[in-house]
Write a structure and sequence with these properties.
By secondary structure, the protein is mainly alpha-helical. Helices cover 64% and strands 7% of the residues.
Length: 152
């Protein structure tokens, strides 16, 4: 059973026994009847949130070239992000990185740069399409898009 099923069960019970029920009453009954389901879901949500925070932290460490205290004067991040065979990113502290790690970190950065450039190209193309209808006017993107037959 999952949380949605526990809530549905509680709603059915309450509405069978009462002429009406509130959302809070449904939650309270579901929690009372299926506390283990809520405990499991709470653990999953906390673990997911912690994973997201750890990912942001590790990404920040691998991007931060200004506060690298390990080897001052060397313009490298304090950790090097490398992609494992599984597709998961692994992070290696700079002072423990060997040449292979540095090269794999370079590949990750190059791929990110290529993606960013591709996004920039798409953005520039879209802006150039809109330029004739927008430049020197106060038209919005939506107004200009409609004038060239895009949008609804």
């Amino acid at each position: 059973m999952n949380v949605a099923e526990a809530l549905r069960h509680a709603a059915d019970v309450l509405l069978d026994q009462n002429p009406d029920a509130s959302a809070n009453e449904v939650v309270n009954l579901a929690y009372e009847q299926h506390s283990e389901v809520f405990a499991t879901e709470a653990q999953r949500l906390v673990a997911d949130a912690a994973r997201r925070q750890a990912t942001k932290l590790m990404s920040k460490l691998s991007d931060n070239e200004d506060s690298q205290p390990v080897l001052p004067g060397l313009k490298l991040p304090s950790t090097i992000a490398v992609e494992a065979d599984s597709g998961e990113f692994r992070y290696v502290r700079l002072d423990k990185a060997d040449w292979t790690v540095l090269e794999r970190g370079r590949v990750v950065r190059e791929r990110n740069a290529h993606r960013a450039l591709a996004k920039l190209d798409v953005y520039r193309d879209a802006a150039e399409t809109l330029r004739p209808e927008m430049e020197g006017t106060s038209r919005t993107v939506l107004e200009a898009a409609r004038r060239i037959g895009l949008g609804s």
